[in-house]
Amino acid sequence: MKALQIIKYGEIKDSLVFNEVSKPTVQANDVLIEVKAAAINPIDKSIILGNLQGMLPITLPSTSAYDVSGIVVETGNEVSNFEIGDLVYSRVPQEQMGSLAEFVAVTSDAVSKKPGNISFEEAASLPLAGLTAFQSLEYVGIKENDKVLIHAGSGGVGSFAIQYAKAIGAYVYTTTSTNNVQWVKELGADRVIDYKTEDYKSIAKDVDIVFDTLGQNYSLESFEVVKTGGKVVSIVGPLDEVSAKMFGMTDYKLPKELANASSEKNAEYKFIFMHPNGSHLNEIKSMIEDEKIKPIIDKVYSFSEGVDAFTHLASGRAKGKIVIKIN
Amino acid sequence: MEDLINKIKNRLQLSSEAEEFLYSISKEKTLAKGEVLIRQGQVVKKTFFVTGGCLRSYCIDKNGKEHTLLFAIKDWWISDYIAIHTNELATLTVECLIESQVIEFNAKELDGIHSRFPEFESYQRHNLERHVVSLQKRILNQLQLSAAERYDLFLKQYPDIEQYTRNFHIASYLGITQQSLSRIRVEKVKK
Lengths: 327, 191
Fold this sequence. Notes:
The complex is a heterodimer of chains A (about 325) and B (about 190).
Chain A: E1 2-6, H1 12-15, E2 16-20, E3 30-40, H2 42-49, E4 62-63, E5 67-75, E6 87-91, E7 103-107, E8 111-113, H3 120-124, H4 127-139, E9 147-150, H5 156-168, E10 171-176, H6 181-186, E11 191-194, H7 200-203, E12 207-212, H8 217-225, E13 226-234, H9 241-246, H10 256-264, E14 268-271, H11 278-289, E15 297-302, H12 306-315, E16 321-325
Helix pairs in contact in A: 4-5, 8-10
Chain B: H1 2-11, H2 16-24, E1 26-31, E2 36-38, E3 46-52, E4 55-60, E5 66-72, E6 77-78, H3 81-86, E7 93-96, E8 100-106, H4 107-111, H5 113-116, H6 120-144, H7 147-157, H8 167-174, H9 178-190
Antiparallel strand pairs in B: 1-8, 2-7, 3-6, 3-8, 4-5, 4-7
Helix pairs in contact in B: 8-9
């Protein structure tokens, strides 16, 4: 089968190549998905560039990408929740990475039926970004009337998080650049802050939750805007101590400034590393079918244009998700 | 099953042999919500008479989106008749929207029942006529009525159905977007 593979770490154009590889074999708990569409995410680019070699070691050559939608064409002996012919979507687990191929084998726990009211391309755009937003906001226990600041509302995670928070009934502040203000407003955000002309810290004050999707100085600044006793949840900032332990870093300490800011505000800091989860995808499916959340796609590429799709991703200019149609 | 037998008896003289035969080719079943009876792409051998609950038949287009052909509530038949009559693989999927009770029949044997028991001929023709009428009405309504009018008719045909269907099921039955359906509902409330 045809697969878009990472052959070495480095520049996208030199590192991604179409290869003919063998079809994945199905383990007892796996389903084999005939891929209809795959989506790419910033993490896929970071892997190619070699920035995550320590954290997510892969054996090269390796097929790229995690997000997938397609049709179940084979089931392992112990799979009881899917049948051949089911239309599904998934964020493929790390050890099965490789959705940019004609087929991908995925453990059935990470798979869900796809929402019935959207296309394969739209479904493929959801898992990684959707699970990241869903698991982050669920962890901090988002509830009705919470004031939430979501950074980078036009990103894949941000645009999902805004819609999810609004579906729960929260009041949403979000930051974005001038060009994106209008369409981010249309996602339902209550106060869209144009970071080029406004200071978000003087607008979003005493919020219950900060969802930090930017990292760097934004993680620390979160404690300037969160209310006393509030929560800061980050997907790109420093690891928290519990998460560090999960990665085997037993003597890790939260950076001092962040630890101080967190204790001064009596506000929890939590790093979330998205984990594949079929039942969470099933909850997302219901919200999509009820149109509480809509997939936001920037552009759909054909499989043969796969490398161009990554170049577009690397430009950082996409409004919504970049999808690659496989079949 | 007794209900169905009584319905048949209202229309024809049912011999005890024929009644026995009906029992021999049928099976009463209770199905869980979400259960799939017919799956697109598979061989279809069964047809179902609904005695309770609600089922939906739909096709999936090449983009992966679902389009609802019909909802079957009490006293309706549901299957993929294209597959049964042309010996092709299913183009439809049939699923239970809520816990449902059906009588499952071997479709070929039920179809051929008149060759063994000729009294079924007029009964089957009557059912087929009703089926053709309802399909033609559905096509014509789709062609000439507004979405709001189609929604009104839909509610008359399936009075309680909104309790157990999702908006996208209804929108995809009417051939409109979910936003249009919401708009029509809002307009209805205003009236």
